[in-house]
Amino acid sequence: MGFGNRSGVALQPNIDSRNSFARHNLVGKPAKVYIDGKPATGITVSKDGKTLVMTVPAHAAGKVDITVTTKDGSFTFPQSYEYIPGGNTSVGFVIFGGDSSVLTAAGKASLDKLIKSIPKNAVIASVGINGWVHRTASTKIDAALSIARATVSAKYLKSKGIKGVYTLDGKGIYHLGNEQDRRAEIEIVWTN
Length: 192
Hints:
Layout: E1 2-5, E2 9-13, H1 17-22, E3 32-35, E4 38-39, E5 41-45, E6 51-55, E7 62-70, E8 73-85, E9 87-95, H2 105-116, E10 123-133, H3 139-159, E11 165-173, E12 183-191
């Protein structure tokens, strides 16, 4: 699960928090989110249930606990994100063809659009990229292809001057069950 925000503060995931959040899907579940016990507001859940967008409360810089509460209960991720005052998050995704990790013209255009959403003078704090696949004949292929999609997306962003700490993850099978599963999802945390 990822977090976006509508305020001038970014939440940068710690490396091991990405895998923890990925196990939770919030499709159709209204959620409350608490950052070190303080409630976030304006919470929306993405259609796929894997991203929450919210306005986060004021907080000092540093690592924070995030608690997500739904009608099914709550789960807390201790010290799972880092507060970056003045930060922003830009998110995007790229769709790939078939069992390929080659960026198409449309894929490059998606990444270019994401790059344009970041001011030229911005300092990139982190770039997180998750690669996904539509089910193939083998889980070994799924794993290799999903990380290859994250890797090729990272190489393209780096070639366009997006510097920062990159975290790549091959997630395997996406849950939509159609061509939209063949993707890489990108989250860039930056400050002015």
